[in-house]
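so i finally got all the pieces together for this one. its four components total, 682 residues if u count the protein bits. some of the lines might not be protein, just check the labels. i wanna see the whole assembly predicted at once instead of chain by chain like last time, that was a mess tbh
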Amino acid sequence: MAAIGDVARLAGVSKSTASRALSGGGHVAEETRLRVERAAAEIGYVVSPAAASLVTGRTKNIGVVIPFVNGWFFGEVLEGIERALLAAGYDLTLYNVAGGGEDRARVFDYFLARRRVDAVIAVGVDLDAHEVASLERREKPVLCLGGYAEGTPRISIDDVAAGRLAADHLIQLGHTRLAHVGGTGAARSVRSVPGGRRRGFLEALSSAGLAPGGRATVVEAEMTMPGGLAATLQLLGHPGRRPTGIVAASDELAFGALRAAERLGVAVPGELSVIGIDGHEYAEMFGLTTVEQYPAEQGRIAVDTLLRLLAEGPADDPLPDSGAPLPTRLVVRSTTARAPR
Amino acid sequence: MAAIGDVARLAGVSKSTASRALSGGGHVAEETRLRVERAAAEIGYVVSPAAASLVTGRTKNIGVVIPFVNGWFFGEVLEGIERALLAAGYDLTLYNVAGGGEDRARVFDYFLARRRVDAVIAVGVDLDAHEVASLERREKPVLCLGGYAEGTPRISIDDVAAGRLAADHLIQLGHTRLAHVGGTGAARSVRSVPGGRRRGFLEALSSAGLAPGGRATVVEAEMTMPGGLAATLQLLGHPGRRPTGIVAASDELAFGALRAAERLGVAVPGELSVIGIDGHEYAEMFGLTTVEQYPAEQGRIAVDTLLRLLAEGPADDPLPDSGAPLPTRLVVRSTTARAPR
DNA sequence: CTGAAAGCGCTTACAG
DNA sequence: CTGAAAGCGCTTACAG
């Protein structure tokens, strides 16, 4: 396969000049550059990333750690990241850490520990101290998108605010018997996506003087449509103490809740209002009122931030827009209405 | 960062021996190997893939070309591939070619043309002659999963058989007024997933003596739930000529069809039977009868096949199980029943 | 079983 | 603006 020496020979220059013309920043006469470029095109030369990164120390490759790729949010984020990376000439190497146990350890201790990636984006996973330390030792910047890791920059919507916004919407519609269908683990940690949304829900209730005790029910489910279905079936089981409004921690949970209502013959929004969080692509079809977020855009922002960080080195001002949560928007459709009297 | 020279020094051996102990196949005394391994662990040595692949010519990295990662089938396949690759010590570099235009050309002419991947798995994309040629020139094996590319091995279910199986199920239940909700492009090419399934549907009808002309309706839609909803709404629009059975080219289309029936007050399966193809994770929740396939498993098989191919080189018998379509299974649930009289 | 040496394909100071 | 040379971190014949 063609190497840079072949290009140089064909163009009648040295390898140094060929290299500079093709990629290096050094100055090359316009005419020379053209000659080299033509030679490269002629023999179909493409740089060897291995050789280049061996000397530059840069791989132009970003590792993405993600718990699953199935699931609307994760798929969208991944596509957003991929598009942005490709545009910047970077590769994306994917690491699935659904397993947790040994597989996960292997990703951090072996795959990510080598010099194959310049930096890491962790999507929806919480990294423990050991994992962060391992990456830091290798001088690999880490950016969290929707997950937490001590001491690393983080990009995310304000989950507490999103939960509050959803609950407030129902409260303003006059609902007083509210329930929350949250994601698994919501109770365990406020510093998690389901935990934050649940806390927002509870805060809104307190602010409105609706004691969470007797009047609000909080259940947990896997964040999928079947999860929402099962949990809501449970919730609507006792006709006497039925909530009139449900805040679901995700749109998929909300879809499941809608289906549960249908199955039990509970009219939406006549007898029951349902609101989700996400802005899932199917939300419109279901007529679901929801708090939208924009994961593909979030992925793009994560890439921009990380590449800037990589370019500047560990600057004094590592994250210009750090702290500012990502945008979110309440979209009212037909699953929420005034509380029934 | 620790290099192999450091390990060698600490273990009191040469770099050659250290290399052999850590990765090379050469014989190393058991005691020496232990000493080297301990030294490596002590200073946290991890091999530099760039340096290694520069000399071996192998990257231990596989490129996956995929049109989107959102969508149940694609997500499952990707997870299956990733798990299998990780287990084999390989990296997965992801290339999204949803765009088609310039972005797609860039993936094939630049990203995939470099020596960054050893081979390519194309998931659900058809490669044109130029793209295949470009990969071949770089000596990169290509494996197609659910897509087509001239002259490259292909792994897939038999889409025609799947379509036939689905239709036959309804025919055996006595249905004679059948409709097909297919994926976009089904009419254009039989050598495409939607095209194959549609052809299978039509074949089954012919075999049963149900002329596709007057009695069967065939519509196309984007292969999503909203797509299926819209197409089925259309299909059920004329109460007089309503089909009693719908074969959907995918489960998501079928979910949409179910929703359309619900909206129009058409009882399933009393007045209308619906069958899908896929085995989507939500199929059970919807009670959907479907022809299951197993994309995660397909991803694993793709990896196994490709790695074997890579190990053996372009052998005489490149694909032992080539031609044998991947497994499929009819799962009957509650959306199909005897045709109404 | 082990070591010295060459070389994979680049980029980058260093001179000129 | 251009070239000769060193070197990035490994692996692999080749000897011994």
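Chain A touches chain B through 54 residues (CB under 8 Å).
Residues 13-17, 20, 26-29, 32, 51, 53-57, 115 of chain A lie near DNA strand D (CB under 10 Å from a C1').
anyway lmk what u think
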